[in-house]
Design goal:
Length: 471
């Protein structure tokens, strides 16, 4: 069974062959830590968590390195630090903001069922690597110094006679198209409009470090160079997979690819580039102006993380995703059913059909169809079928708790007093035993008004038993 992954660069889905099967290496762009992450960031975290799990399943947990970076130097961070901590030295305020926001992000994606990456490097801890790459680019003629800035020249890259790809190969755009489609900073010191900043002088009070390439004033890195440096430090000059949202293809990933390939005279930065599609809310683009901009934290207040996870995995990662309240409601009902059937099952291996679906470019939409069949087999079968169903769900990041804990979480979130419900059910059973059906119906109505649905049945010995759940 071959693992195939779609490569944005080649537009093909060849068999995945790692550079080193003993250390499969992947990098995904993480958050800029200045505020709560939005639900679109959550989709990217879930997609690459599934990939991480699939790679661990195929190659072994100890043979996969997953790097997800933290961008902790950015103008938005500086603005929030000055706003939230007036009177505190800016660098100290920035650290407070980034520490707080970093932890918020960790808590949120953990609630979504995401495993911790192997390494989560911070940009500010990799300034030496950034300077080293910049020095290589200047020495190779791919970058130049102008008015205390260092700028990368896509034109110089495209004129180089080497194995390196042309600038624009990832996004499939010409230089003219990139100028038209980008927010180009017009500056007199630029040689060409497409040139982008690798390093710039810091303003008074901003974070600053010793500059590369003989620049005497202190400065700070441009956005794109950060990921090139962190990937190089932790994964090497070339690695297996680079991931992120489709919005990062241009300019961020295009520029990363250019910087790294030119610095190390390589034809590739990553062997496979993977990008998840856009996320919409109720069929509209997520936007603060439309009032439909949601953070992960806001949605977690209404739904368990696994509900959000399932809502997103029903759609193939490369396709646009329309997140709706209805989809979350359906996911919640599905998870209630899955937990009741499989959460307490032990042992088992994921279904081959499930693995085959995920090996086909993380085809989670097909995986959902497989899960439907596994669920039916588990509901009518024995321990083997339940074990296979449970293992398949866990491969996707579900069943993080036992069945009783899942049910109890729902009951607790509803505010329903479980002890009171149990007392009323006992009173109803007593009324039925004495054939007081009027009282029995009254208690049922009372439970229904409380938001409780009851179901009468029999236990394995044939004795009457009543179960309940939050309606």
């Amino acid at each position: 069974m071959q693992l195939r992954l779609y490569d944005t660069l080649t537009k093909e889905k060849p068999p995945f062959v790692p550079l080193d099967a003993g250390n499969v290496r992947m990098y995904a762009c993480g958050p800029t830590v200045y505020d709560f992450a939005h639900i679109g960031n959550g989709r990217a975290a879930i997609v690459f968590d599934v990939l991480f799990r699939v790679l661990r399943h195929r190659y072994g947990a100890d043979h996969v390195t997953y790097v997800r970076n933290i961008t902790d130097v950015d103008d938005k961070i500086n603005v929030r630090a000055a706003r939230d901590y007036p009177g505190v030295p800016l660098n100290e305020a920035i650290r407070k903001v980034t520490e707080e926001t970093y932890q918020q992000y960790q808590d949120d994606v953990t609630a979504l069922g995401c495993l911790a990456p192997t390494v989560q490097p911070r940009a500010t801890e990799h300034i030496p690597e950034m300077r080293a790459i910049i020095e290589k680019l200047v020495a190779g003629g791919f970058a130049y110094v102008a008015e205390d800035h260092v700028l990368f020249s896509p034109q110089a890259m495209n004129e180089a006679n080497s194995v390196m790809p042309r600038y624009g190969a990832l996004s499939k755009r010409s230089l003219d198209e990139m100028i038209a489609g980008a927010r180009v900073d017009v500056a007199p010191y630029k040689r060409d409009n497409t040139d982008f900043v690798l390093w710039k002088p810091s303003k008074p009070g901003e974070p600053s470090w010793a500059s590369p390439s003989g620049i005497k004033v202190e400065g700070r890195p441009g956005w794109h160079i950060e990921c090139s440096a962190m990937a190089w430090k932790h994964l090497g000059e070339k690695f297996d997979i680079h991931g992120g949202g489709i919005d990062l293809v241009f300019p961020h990933h295009e520029n990363e690819l250019a910087q790294t390939c030119c610095a190390f005279h390589s034809d590739r930065m990553a062997n496979v580039w993977m990008h998840n599609g856009f996320l919409q809310i109720e069929s509209e683009k997520m936007s603060k102006s439309l009032g439909n901009f949601f953070t992960i934290r806001e949605l977690l207040a209404d739904w368990p993380g696994e509900v959000l996870r399932l809502s997103m995995l029903r759609t193939h990662y490369r396709s646009p995703l329309d997140w709706t309240a209805k989809s979350a409601e359906e996911a919640a009902k599905t998870l209630d059913d899955w937990y009741a059937i499989a959460a307490d099952a032990e042992g088992g291996e994921p279904s081959p059909a499930m693995v085959e679906a995920l090996y086909d470019d993380l085809n989670t939409a097909q995986a959902m169809a497989v899960l439907h069949g596994l669920r039916n087999a588990a509901a009518s079968g024995g321990a083997r079928e339940r074990g296979e169903f449970a293992a398949s769900l866990r491969l996707l990041g579900f069943l993080s708790m036992g069945a009783a804990a899942w049910k109890g979480r729902k009951q607790q979130a509803s505010g329903i007093d479980a002890a009171e419900v149990d007392r009323l059910i006992a009173d109803r059973a007593a009324a039925r035993a004495r054939k007081d059906f009027k009282e029995s119906d009254r208690i049922r109505d009372q439970l229904s008004a409380m938001g409780v649905a009851i179901k009468d049945g029999k236990d394995k010995d044939g004795k009457p038993v009543t179960t309940w759940e939050v309606a």
